[in-house]
Amino acid sequence: MTAPRVALVDSGGTNIGSVTYALERLGATARLTADRGDILAADRVVLPGVGAAAAGMRRLREAGLVETLHEVQVPLLGVCLGMQLLLERSEEDGGVETLGLVPGEVVAIPATPQARVPHMGWNALEDLADDPLLRDVEAGERAYFVHSYAAPVGPWTLATTRHGGAWSAVVRHGLRWGAQFHPERSAALGATLLRNFLGEVGR
Amino acid sequence: MTLARRIIPCLDVRDGRVVKGTRFRDHRDMGDIVELATRYAREGADELVFYDITASPQGRAVDVDWVTRVARAIDIPFCVAGGIRSVEAARAVLHAGADKISVNTPATQRPELVRELADAFGVQCVVVGVDSLRDQDGQWRIRQLTGDPEATRALPVATLDWVQEVVALGAGEIVLNCMGSDGVRSGYDVEQLRAVRAVCGVPLVASGGAGAVEHFTEVFREADVDGALAATVFHSGAIAIPALKRELAATGLVVREVAEAVA
């Protein structure tokens, strides 16, 4: 297969570099863009994001990308805040309407003495659904998470992780996937997931 | 809990090379930064901290070239410390691919910096390093400018108060470097870490004093820290990370074990 062209949507997050490098390690060409034509011409679209929901949505709106993301017909992957933006609503910043590409909402993780917030570090993936994105991923494998808000488990959850309660680690609705953790920083597991996103999900 | 306790090697960087020695003198070249970072990642380090010793004391900004090289090469998270005094400097480091930035002395000089960084990048990117030592009256208080023994200053700020202040300002993680145990390799300062743990609701990383596998077990069990940072024991090969992880797992601690690295 020729190297898939990946459009990395410029949502103003800071940690774009590591997503680009992870995709390049897998042989894809990744281009950071806020251009509608570039995004709609790509084989895969990734919505990365670090930071807060309100700022992320503002940036997408200002760049005119909300409609564009709704028009994407190829597999789309939201990472971390990017996954949260795919859902309908976030409790962050006093409540933010998000893209609504995947049903569900994002809430603050309640901090307890046992479950500190931010949820930061390597946590286990559980309750894995049979899905091409998760091919060769086994329950109990660990991914690198860092976030203070999360999506409760729902019908669109493909994998969970436990921190206090259970949360969505991976979601899917149609050709839209989201990973709450950072595959670009999740060692072999992350590479497997990104490789599946570049290959398996399009089969 | 299923979240793994983190093992974090710390590498001192000078002019893009990893060096060893006291922070200021007798630097010995340990090798290429990408080679060492890749090796630690392969061996199962959960995260790396790079302390830029060129940047901090000389008032220079971090040279982001090596940050980019590391970000391209490794697939685990890493944090850059040293020389970050402004939102702009932090942005350059994060854009280059670092996952987190750590501030220490600049936060003691202008605590508002912590809030500015958290507002700009989110608390999950903002680590505050705290250098702490017990004074003669028995109180733990913070130090600044610890990179240079001659410039180091004791501040009249109690460590427990400082930790709560920076967390309120937006620190998403605290690295507590217990200077009394640093370099001695006789174990982490469990008493102090436990006291800080009690007032610290965000992740807490222990630093200073690791010399043996039992020290890691002890600090996780007794002080309930989220991560343990060490330099010498990893660089010297005295403790191999895969073996350390196996030992920790055998005592019932939750760790991320990786398949044995293949040459």
From TrEMBL, chain A:
InterPro entries (UniProt xref): Class_I_gatase-like (IPR029062), GATASE (IPR017926), Imidazole-glycPsynth_HisH (IPR010139)
Keywords of this entry: Amino-acid biosynthesis, Cytoplasm, Glutamine amidotransferase, Histidine biosynthesis, Hydrolase, Lyase
GO MF annotation terms: glutaminase activity; imidazoleglycerol-phosphate synthase activity; lyase activity
Coiled coil: none
Pathway this chain belongs to: Amino-acid biosynthesis; L-histidine biosynthesis; L-histidine from 5-phospho-alpha-D-ribose 1-diphosphate: step 5/9
GO biological process: L-histidine biosynthetic process
Primary localization class, coarse: cytoplasm
Signal sequence extent: none
Domain Glutamine amidotransferase positions: 8-198
Protein location: Cytoplasm
Active-site residues per Swiss-Prot or TrEMBL entry: 80 (nucleophile), 182, 184
Quaternary context: Heterodimer of HisH and HisF.
Protein name from the UniProt record: Imidazole glycerol phosphate synthase subunit HisH
Organism per entry: Ornithinimicrobium tianjinense
Gene: hisH
From TrEMBL, chain B:
Reactions the enzyme catalyzes: 5-[(5-phospho-1-deoxy-D-ribulos-1-ylimino)methylamino]-1-(5-phospho-beta-D-ribosyl)imidazole-4-carboxamide + L-glutamine = D-erythro-1-(imidazol-4-yl)glycerol 3-phosphate + 5-amino-1-(5-phospho-beta-D-ribosyl)imidazole-4-carboxamide + L-glutamate + H(+)
Cellular compartments per GO CC: cytoplasm
InterPro entries xrefs: Aldolase_TIM (IPR013785), His_biosynth (IPR006062), HisF (IPR004651), IGPS_HisA/HisF (IPR050064), RibuloseP-bd_barrel (IPR011060)
GO biological process, one term: L-histidine biosynthetic process
Recorded metabolic or biological pathway in which this protein acts: Amino-acid biosynthesis; L-histidine biosynthesis; L-histidine from 5-phospho-alpha-D-ribose 1-diphosphate: step 5/9
Enzyme Commission numbers on file: 4.3.2.10
Enzyme class: lyase
Entry keywords, A to Z: Amino-acid biosynthesis, Cytoplasm, Histidine biosynthesis, Lyase
Keyword Cell membrane carried by entry: no
Compartments reported by the entry: Cytoplasm
Pfam family membership, one: His_biosynth
Main location: cytoplasm
SUPFAM superfamilies found in the cross-reference section: Ribulose-phoshate binding barrel
Active site as annotated: 12, 131
MF term (GO), any: imidazoleglycerol-phosphate synthase activity
Annotated family: Belongs to the HisA/HisF family.
Its job: IGPS catalyzes the conversion of PRFAR and glutamine to IGP, AICAR and glutamate. The HisF subunit catalyzes the cyclization activity that produces IGP and AICAR from PRFAR using the ammonia provided by the HisH subunit.
Subunit composition and interactions: Heterodimer of HisH and HisF.
PANTHER family given in the database record: IMIDAZOLE GLYCEROL PHOSPHATE SYNTHASE HISHF, IMIDAZOLE GLYCEROL PHOSPHATE SYNTHASE SUBUNIT HISF/H IGP SYNTHASE SUBUNIT HISF/H
Protein's name according to its UniProt entry: Imidazole glycerol phosphate synthase subunit HisF
Taxonomic source organism: Ornithinimicrobium tianjinense
Source taxonomy: Bacteria, Bacillati, Actinomycetota, Actinomycetes, Micrococcales
